[in-house]
Amino acid sequence: MIEGGFFVKKTTISSTVLPSSIAKKILVFEEVDSTNTTAKELARTGAEEGTVVIARRQNHGRGRFDRLWESPEGGLYLSIVLKPQVTVEKTSLLPLIAALSVCQTIKIFGPSATIRWPNDVLVHGKKIAGILLESETQRDKVSYVVVGIGVNLNIENTDFSSQIRSRSTSLKKEMKSSVDYEKFLQQFFQQFSSFYQLFVQEKFGRIIEEWKKHSDTIGKTIQITTSQDTFQGLAVDVDQSGFLLVKTTDGSLKKMTSGDCIYLNEL
Ligand code: BTN
């Protein structure tokens, strides 16, 4: 079913993590290329909604815009296969759900976390988690969505490369002690299950409302870079699809579906 030999070793996690309404089948690996790559392969070959791929390490973790996601031991790297019966447009809410679930889980452990649009999770202004959504569609139907989540859990500052060290943090660093990996995972699945249920019930307004409460971006002057251009403006709101509304310097309102967001006061 899976080709390429990128599974180094399969391992297990304790049964306390099972079951939860979203994580129906959990596959845990010592090391993979990228849990998203593995999950996509599984999804394409018939894996059901609720299949989760977890790895202790990734040797080619992928971030947004083809960036590398540094994935040393101690971090949480997981991908969830979803097969929602929604229009393609609505899948843009899934990363928001993932970011919200991470925020709520972190809060259970102590620190309060915020979200920089679209879905970077921050603690004290530094990135603690990132989300990568990948999907396949046929005409306007969703074949599958893989939601990949990377959380810096028990990672030391020195484990990050010098390029990202100053803008990254970990839960261990914030808490000044290690956190229980499996407890975090269990809590995360519970949070994700609740938000996903809202999504399936098409209670999109509730999701957006919750996202706005955690937003670190609305009200800030930002610079957005997309594959086409870079521009500046004021982040005024997020619409019902999770798109960011930005009032640009010429007074027009831009609706952003994706992009890289930087706060101008931090440049
Ligand atoms: C970003 O902020 O750029 C997104 C980072 C997403 C990283 C996670 S780790 C688990 C999953 N597998 C990957 O290769 N990427 C995502």
Helix content: 10-25%
Which small-molecule ligands are present, each listed once?
Answer: biotin
Q: How many separate helices?
A: 6
Task: Outline the low-pLDDT stretches.
Answer: 1-9
Question: Kindly state the mean pLDDT as a whole number?
Answer: 91
Rg, rounded, reads 18 Å
Largest sheet: number of strands, sense, barrel closure: 8 strands, mixed
Q: Walk across the major sheet and give the strand order.
A: 1-2-3-4-8-7-6-5
Q: State the name of the first-level CATH class of the largest domain.
A: Alpha Beta
Secondary structure category? alpha+beta
Shape designation:
globular
The helix/strand series, from N terminus to C terminus, equals EEHEEHEEEEHHHHEEEEE
CATH topology term of the largest domain: BirA Bifunctional Protein, domain 2
Q: Give the N-to-C terminal Cα separation.
A: 47 Å
How many β-strand runs? 13
Give me the CATH architecture of the largest domain, please: 2-Layer Sandwich
Q: How much β-strand is present in the residues?
A: 25-35%
User: What number of domains?
Assistant: 2
CATH superfamily of the largest domain: Bira Bifunctional Protein, Domain 2
Provide a short characterization of the protein structure.
This protein is an alpha+beta fold.
